[in-house]
Amino acid sequence: MHVRQWITVALLAVSIPGTAQAQLKVVTSTTDLYDIAEAVGGDKIKASHIGEGFQDPHFIEAKPSFVLQLRNADVWAFVGLELEIGWMPLLLDGARNPKIQLGGSGYVDVSRAMPLIDVPRGNVDRSMGDVHPLGNPHYWLDPENGRRMAKLFLAKFSELDPKNAAVYTANEKSFEGKLGTAEAGWQAQLAQIKGKPVVAWHTSWNYFAEYTGMRIVAYMEPKPGVPPSPSHLLQVVQAVKTSGAKVIIMEPFYDKKMADLVARQTGATVLVLPPSVGGVPGITNYIQLMQHDIAELSTHVK
Fold this sequence. Notes:
Helix content: 40-55%
Order of helices and strands: HEHEHEHEHHHEHEHEHEH
Structural class: alpha/beta
Oligomer: single chain
Mean pLDDT: 91
Number of helices: 11
Distance between the termini: 68 Å
């Protein structure tokens, strides 16, 4: 195509209503935030995410392509509580985008909207393992916090794009409605889980435990982020036998070897549960994630 013709076509595209509608560019640190942002934003936003659901969100490689994503972002939404501390500063520094720096209009620390658990008292040091000094960051595994996330996105998108506030409000209500319907459907499964003893690999399941009522009787990690020693494994085996726990739950990105060893010695089942959207194939949204994990756990704790 001749250059003059190309320019004419481009100008026509801009002049035709609806063909070049501006969308908020939203980047999230995790797939869970991404899915809820998309549910609220709909076609008024263009969303992307950094981490994948099958990755440990503490350890994401800070790729140059992520810097490019952030360079033009209107919103950067992240879990916070130092979950992304190992890689987020590198990306934000590289992006040089004032909108998404601390204090910018698009800097969204989602943890600020959450009631937190496991906030340590006193001094925190490395001898305690990978303890998060501001509180446990895995709050999305409680649907009530999923609602808080949706409301936060509603407020931010409406602030930055007020002409579409009514659309964001309707989308947020629709998300809450779908989540409420799903919750009503899994109440019987929650009743089967309530009070049942389980072993968890990491403290990432603590919010999920509060929601489901499952009772975590031991952790495979002696301290957060610290692999189990032989003496600690003996303690876990004893806890399983004493409590009657039938399940060891863990994320797909941890090595199953030690959990399998405990399972062989106790008869418990190692249950690999995705902690995030996309953590296993077929889990493509937040409601599916919660539904899957609750259904799987209720089946195995009986």
